[in-house]
């Protein structure tokens, strides 16, 4: 049986004119590094235009050669578009405005907000409010549920302009909020992130794809500075 091979990421003439850039070229991890500055680990692999986390080799319960990966470049106002799919029972996350001060923060999620990537049907987090796929993790639940089943591609967008944050999942605006205002500060103070004083305060930072010990795939990762 012939398998359909996903073409490498490309930009249309319209996207080029609008200033879109490709963050993952479909065949290498150029432009990315492991949190803390090291090269991307060997468990992050590319095939058929996708970037995926191979969970085959584990050591002490963690993926050998894994780790969270970040863009080399930092972004302020931006519009991010990508596709993701998750293995059955799996979880990951797309974290943004990550501050890479490893002396203060051990993991990216201690600094930047996250769009949850999850198999809602089978992962235990799906039973926790604000922890389901597409949620602004531990802060705001999706206004409607549009996620597809494990193993199917989801089209996600994160748009942040002067603190106005919007999440889109499969074409629907599922989260809309304002960053850095009084209400935001109160939300963070009532969340698990209250233990990290810098969380959610950074107005410029890196994009992160999370290693949460489960197989996850990403493709067509594009960003436009706004």
Structural commentary:
The chain is globular, with a radius of gyration of 17 Å. The N and C termini lie far apart (44 Å). A hairpin with a 2-residue loop joins β12 (164-169) and β13 (172-178). 6% of the residues lie in helices and 35% in strands. The longest helix is centred in the last third of the chain and has 8 residues, at 182-189. The chain is mostly beta strands and 226 residues long. Strands 1, 3, 4, 8, 11, 12, 13 and 15 form an 8-stranded antiparallel β-sheet that branches.
Summed up:
The protein is 6% helix and 35% strand.
β-strand amount? 25-35%
What value does the Rg take, in angstroms? Answer: 17 Å
Under the CATH scheme, which class?
Mainly Beta
Q: CATH topology, anyone?
A: Jelly Rolls
**What overall form do the CA principal axes indicate?**
globular
Count of DSSP-assigned helices:
2
First-last Cα distance: 44 Å
Task: Supply the helix-strand structural class.
Answer: mainly beta
Proportion of helical residues: under 10%
| Secondary-structure arrangement, i.e. CATH architecture | Sandwich
Question: Poorly predicted ranges (pLDDT <50, ≥5 residues)?
Answer: none
How many domains is the backbone divided into? Answer: 1
Report the major sheet: 8 strands, antiparallel
Counting DSSP E segments of at least 2 residues, the number of strands comes to 15
* Mean of all residue-level pLDDT scores: 95
- The CATH superfamily bears the name Exo-inulinase, domain 1
Order of helices and strands: HEEEEEEEEEEEEEHEE
